[in-house]
Amino acid sequence: MTFASKLLNLIGFSEGLRVDLAMDLGTANTLIYVKGKGIIVNEPSVVAIDTRTNKPVAIGRTARQFLGRTPPHIRAERPLKDGVIADFDAAMTMVKGFLGKAFRPRFWLNPRIVIGVPSGITQVERRAVKDSAYQAGARHIFLVEEPMAAAMGAGLDVDMPVGNMVVDIGGGTTEVAIISLCATAYCESIRVAGDEMDEAILRYVQRNMHVEVTPELAEEIKIRIGCADRTGPEKKMPVTGKELGRGGPRTVEVTSNHVAEALEEPVDAILDTIRRALETAPPALLADVKERGLILSGGGALLSGLDQLIYRMTGIRAYMADDPLAAVVRGCGIALEDLPRWERIFVK
């Protein structure tokens, strides 16, 4: 504890100044929820660092614009991969920067933080998440598995004796879980999600149209005309990239049918995970899911036609959570608002 913190504790100001928060430290986006205030940070999980000084140049939306456009002495990167920290120092720098954006003035005592993590996270990866938060200034850290947080954020009664199914498709992982009484009856995490979809689109354009595009442009294609199947009306989008072989710029037309074909493999992997969950679920919980349907959350839930495809393949209705991108952090925020009540859901 710092001298300032000790002094403030002695004079009784610590509780008034402490700000507790919840965080969804995601592969694609980081969201921060402050107790009593709601979501106050929603930024891309990107940091740009000057390698000469090892100091941050930009974080979040500004840093995202640097990707693929930096001079040699600036490194712009996404420090999380597949839902976990790949570059510890960059992640710590990014978290510190987001905390700085969250609090103005920056005069606050070390907070308690609830963080959403993938259900398949290893002990080493879990320790990396905790260490980055401690280094960024946290006092106590509580981890919640993302499907549990997403279910809570979507408004499901996770503490009741009834089966709730959630499919959370983030940037790095897809989490499929059946939840009852604050516990997961079944949970599986696969590292196939939004980033894998972007990579599939990138490879498709390169292989079939002989044009190289950036991952950021592939993501834009997915957002604008992406779809899970080819049953809907066809959409089109002009895409400019580098022509393979010649090296000059070239513009091609990408359609929603092209994207659906490109996404067949990652979408099938997600559907297979949903099928395994339904095959494994106890009969009573399966009956609940059949009656109530399943909830889609995360950025991948926005993929057009995914809900209809799930229904055709499983017979289970799929409903999108309100504000699916924020479901995990809202669930973490619910836990933060009443820590004693939700103690059972925290990962030990």
Description:
The protein is α+β, with helices and mostly antiparallel strands and 348 residues long. It is built from 13 helices and 19 strands. A 6-stranded mixed β-sheet has the order 3-2-1-9-10-19, with helices on both faces. A 5-stranded mixed β-sheet has the order 13-12-11-17-18, with helices on both faces. The two termini are 24 Å apart.
Q: How would you summarize the topology of this molecule?
A:
Elements (H helix, E strand, L loop, with lengths): L2 H8 L3 H4 L3 E5 L3 E6 L3 E7 L2 E4 L4 E5 L1 H4 L9 E4 L2 E2 L2 E2 L2 H15 L9 E6 L5 H13 L4 E6 H8 L10 E6 L4 E7 L2 E8 L3 H16 L1 E2 L2 H11 L10 E8 L5 E7 H7 L1 H17 L2 H10 L1 E4 L8 H9 L3 E3 L6 H11 L8 E2 L1
Parallel strand pairs: 1-9, 9-10, 11-17, 17-18
Antiparallel strand pairs: 1-2, 2-3, 4-5, 4-6, 7-8, 10-19, 11-12, 12-13, 14-15, 15-16
Helix pairs in contact: 4-5, 6-13, 7-8, 10-12
InterPro entries: ATPase_NBD, MreB, MreB_MamK-like
Family: Belongs to the FtsA/MreB family.
Main location: cytoplasm
